[in-house]
């Protein structure tokens, strides 16, 4: 009788910030462990070094159209990334990376800093004006992320609520009725972007979509569906993850007061603190999927041609062979780079923008509200563990003078 493989994804956590115990148990077995996905067996990559090796190997394909490609969905649906540049290999993938590289260059992203700072301050002004308590996700996390991606792509900010509502559906594929909801939301967003591209053709602005229309669509270097899918992908990837990092990162700091104090009182720690939060949270929790086009040897294990892998940044970022005391949040930590943006040719194209956005968001928040604290007990903060993006979307916070204790 064949041995039953452990089912994956594993989502049940006893502590919100620690990986599931079942996942850590697999990490103790080997750098690569065979697991059962909804689509069949695959290798779960549990170690940092094996993850980097495989993500950098051109024999590991991102092409979801290949037979046997692993997916993490429990319900049958058309994956939203299929056909996008994120699911291309080789020269096709390199073409789109080159197309987008200038938009996410250090120089262009740095030029956005004043606008991001202004947006953060305006949101904090409104929070302070209204007074505590506030739900930080709704009052700060979402609108900071929305305003930044709107500025980048040239999407009118007054439409932010529309696309925020539809984007939320994409990151919860295990919820009942998800295939229908996701298909409906993708269709609505695609129609919106189609109309936006038409407007940019007539009235271009100083934004990414206008430049892509002028430099790639009009000369015929890409066709309209390709441009729409790329714009859709950037909108989705650049919004939900960053908003969630702002909210969940703040929650982590507030639940570790000494770490909050370090970042607040020692501004030079801010950049490293953002990297540590990205490592510690690993909010894209289920993993990165690939399929082998040839046999690939990793240590003592061979991934055979046609076999799929799931690289777990969550486990790689908690590898005790790489990070001392990996389950501890330490904003003073220095060491090897984390895997939260991936690695290799498919390293997140927007990582430069995400990093500066998070640095500014945390810096302005801690500067303007140095006495920020949770408005409810830690045990009452809800965390999402079943969604593609881990974290909390409900963070009640307060600030100002603490109420006096009522005598017993």
UniProtKB/TrEMBL annotation:
Task: Please verify whether the record's keywords include Glycoprotein.
Answer: no
Q: Which Pfam families match?
A: p450
**Which Gene3D superfamilies does the annotation name?**
Cytochrome P450 (1.10.630.10)
The source's superkingdom equals: Bacteria
**InterPro entries in alphabetical order:** Cyt_P450, Cyt_P450_B, Cyt_P450_CS, Cyt_P450_sf
What family does this belong to? Belongs to the cytochrome P450 family.
Protein name per Swiss-Prot or TrEMBL: Cytochrome P450
Species per Swiss-Prot/TrEMBL record: Streptomyces gulbargensis
